[in-house]
Write a structure and sequence with these properties.
Strand content: under 5%
Largest sheet: none
Number of helices: 6
Helix content: over 70%
Number of strands: 0
Oligomer: single chain
Radius of gyration: 18 Å
Length: about 200
């Protein structure tokens, strides 16, 4: 099935028609992101210190990047057709878990799974789900495929930096230095996603 530009669209992924309205499914997805944003607000008010405020701004920026990626994907394809509901629900589940692990995104709390590693894994899953659809659409265009490969590398690098931010500080003596290193890793991850990602488009 062609789209007039030579791109073949799979039956599992349908292109969004011009003037298409937001579906009920997309509104449901947005609610989960709203829950995550509200969770950041609660964390900010719980400990109103400069370090905690900066941490919450970092988390908010990553959430915003996830949401804009999902919104951008929804303008390209129909979110309620083919395999997109499966991708959407995967994104929702990962975002919900991301929101629940926010209190432990920087400090691994006793008991249960490692909070920073779970947070990084959920972030990677959300971004991978979005980029999988974009990659599927770009597979027949060599130029778009090369650009997608660069786009796909960004969340992998960013997630690796988030994992390092969860592991490395615990091995450093001195709390101020450990916090500075951790915030440095997070800031670098954001700079890569926003800086390179915006340049690549």
């Amino acid at each position: 099935m062609g789209d007039g530009g030579g791109t073949r669209w799979s039956r599992g992924v349908q292109r969004g028609a011009p003037g298409s309205r937001t579906t009920r499914l997309e509104l449901f997805y947005d609610l989960v992101f709203v829950f995550a944003f509200l969770n950041v607000t609660s964390l900010t008010s719980s400990t109103p210190t400069p370090v905690n405020l900066f941490r919450c701004l970092l988390v908010l920026a990553l959430l915003w990047w996830c949401w804009t990626g999902f919104a951008g994907m929804a303008t390209l394809v129909r979110a309620d057709r083919g395999v997109l509901p499966v991708v959407g629900f995967t994104t929702v589940a990962a975002t919900f878990l991301l929101a629940l692990t926010m209190p432990g995104a920087f400090v691994d709390r006793p008991g249960g799974l490692n909070g920073p590693l779970v947070f990084a894994g959920c972030y990677l899953l959300v971004r991978a789900a979005q980029l999988a659809i974009v990659g599927w659409l770009a597979r027949s265009d060599p130029v778009e495929r090369r650009r997608w490969l660069l786009q796909a590398a960004l969340p992998v690098v960013a997630s690796a930096l988030l994992i390092a931010a969860g592991v490395v500080p615990s091995r450093i003596d001195g709390r101020p230095v450990a916090i500075a290193v951790q915030l440095g890793f997070w800031t670098l991850a954001l700079a890569i996603e926003f800086g390179v990602g915006t340049g690549v488009g």
